[in-house]
Prior knowledge:
heterodimer; A: 4 helices; 78% helix; B: mainly alpha; disordered N terminus
Amino acid sequence: MKCKGLLSELADYLDEMLDPALRMEIEEHLAKCKNCRVVVNTTKKTIEIFCNSEPVPLPVDTRQRLHVALEKRMRRVQA
Amino acid sequence: MSSSKVNPPVPPHSLPSQVVKDDEPLFVAAAKSGDISAFETLVGRYEHKIFRLTQNITQNREDAEDAMQEAFLKAYEHLGEFQGNSRFYTWLVRIAVNQALMKLRKRRPNQISLDEEVDTGEDMVPREIEDWGPSPEERYEQTELAQILSTVVGELEPGFRIVFQLRDIEELSTEETAEALGLSVPAVKSRLLRARLKLRQKLNRYFRRGENS
């Protein structure tokens, strides 16, 4: 496998969707190629950082307006 | 020691989202039979996530709030039509994406097309190949990191930003993302890879070794 080949399989490799033979081919390439190793690790880290990021709390006034609007609509639907 | 630290594995995203709790169907069933407090529980559970979603899509605070509000109102009005073939959260995300896209298209007509061809050619090849070290995010305060993440996501084109948002932030599966956006599974996969590589490159300026450490 060459660097370009790894790139075309990278999405499925990161999502652990590859069949074992192809996965092994990628890992053999990674063991030899420092650049690809860095790209794979930093891309994994990118996903991880976003995945672990907490949603910003909903601003109080935004939340209030949402619940007032909902209450109004609920009353209308129930009437 | 720190150089040998093993990062926790990133969960495979082909699996259904772990955002949703097991009791969701119970609250949905109660809300469908007219229990207002059950619907309010669902709103309370997802409001901050839906707001983050609409904020990231529209990149505009006022539009994000409107889109979120309209999404919950629509979900309430059309709850009777929800068949339970997908998870309620996925259904809600789909409504919120549509509302947010409508806002975005209003502001930037003719610029937002989710189904246009994506070039997967040479510009996919990563540049700036520099290592980040084990925990680059720990170099920043929580609020500073949140600002960095929001900035770099905001720099992505909408077609990439939305796919990344649904798959890697809201944790929808590839299939759910494709369904929500009306895209094919291969289109979602290629956009997702592009988005991840672009974000990696953008984060490089904050996280590379020696930067701010």
